[in-house]
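Chain A, query sequence.
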Amino acid sequence: VSHMGEFIVRGSQALDLVQYITVNDASKIEIGQAQYSAMCLESGGIIDDLLIYRFSDRFMLVVNAANRAKDLEWIEQRADTFDVELEDASEATALIALQGPAAREILQPLTNPDVDSIEYYRFSEGEVANIPAIVSGTGYTGEDGFELYTAAEDAPQVWDALLLAGSPQGLVPAGLGARDSLRLEMGYSLYGNDLDENHTTLESGLGWITKLDKGDFVGRDALAAQKEHGVARRLVGMRVEGRAFPRPGYPILSNGEAVGRITSGTMSPSLGVGIALGYVPSELAKVDTVLQVDVRGRPAEVHVQRPPFYTNSSIRR
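Chain A, predicted structure.
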């Protein structure tokens, strides 16, 4: 997943800038810890969701690949009044995700520190296959696993070492399609599908990372007003009854009338049924509400369900 973007923020006001441009409370991040957050427009619409890593001397912001240029320009415009240095390290940084129940067993012989010491959303600087690396207890699958950041030129050596070490456990490369089905089974949102500038964090199920009491940040006033007046629409999970395949863009119906659309949908490999995310009016967002999805002109019944849809083999919640 080396297509992701990595920005480095240094300087005496690095924390102040990160606090101002993100909705979560970055002051709560300890050194060696990662935090899930988002950046919003003044309107509250989501510019991007991201991970924030705190080091002793810097922060690293990991953003979505498609938003890299947009995000960098937006941050640069707001960094002018802060004593910071902002570096786009994306081209120089590779990111390999090792995910699954055997991840610890495979990685341990190749790395220091001890992988068992790396808790969920914690990271450590060390080595993987004698290559300097950041070993992070993060991922986008819901499974146990790690994300490994290395210099771009060192990535092939780390990749080959992982495949060799993991061959007895059946380790194989997996593409973004496999990752997408895993993230959707967990109900994880994808920017460009479920998250965008037309929806706020409160509408998108990200109220839990929106810290209105932390002080000023971009979008705070709009989000505070929306919280006070009520959220009109919400992102919900839906499970299809029957064999219909819910695809992004399909209309969501209530009593035959369109009330929203599917933003992400797939046939769950683990459950054997269709699962989806989509926006509906708040009054229809309650668990067990019965709706329909228009699948090429035929209504398929769906039930609103609180994700995750499937957790039987998931270690990370």
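The first helix runs from residue 14 to 21. The radius of gyration is 20 Å.
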